[in-house]
Automatic annotation (TrEMBL):
Chain spans, region Disordered: 76-95
Protein name (database record): Uncharacterized protein
Gene3D superfamilies: 2.30.30.100
Length: 95
């Protein structure tokens, strides 16, 4: 399941109130560490750029998908509409 998010642009809200935006490079399924490329950390109205930024899964309050790279943009909206949510639940073990 973690590979599903690779290449997507995300906005991560951390429990400390800060926000990080960037492209998902990888998610470690064991440690649940999120690795972001071209990340911008927004904290106390200041932004800080990081070529690579790591977010511990326990620190995440919310994740939103805000964009996608060219590999994902080739999907049509009709293709995206046919994603079966039950298959996603199986992948992440929600059944």
């Amino acid at each position: 399941m973690s590979q599903t998010f690779e290449g997507l642009d995300v906005k991560v809200t951390r429990k400390d109130g800060s926000t990080v935006t960037g492209m998902v490079q990888s998610i470690n399924p064991v440690t649940r560490t999120l690795t972001l490329n071209d990340a911008t950390l927004l904290f106390r109205n200041q932004s800080h750029y990081h070529a690579v930024y790591y977010v511990n899964g326990q620190d995440v309050s919310d994740i939103q998908i805000v964009g996608e790279d060219e590999a994902f943009s080739t999907l049509s909206s009709a293709d995206e509409a046919h994603v079966d949510s039950s298959s996603l639940d199986e992948e992440v073990g929600l059944e």
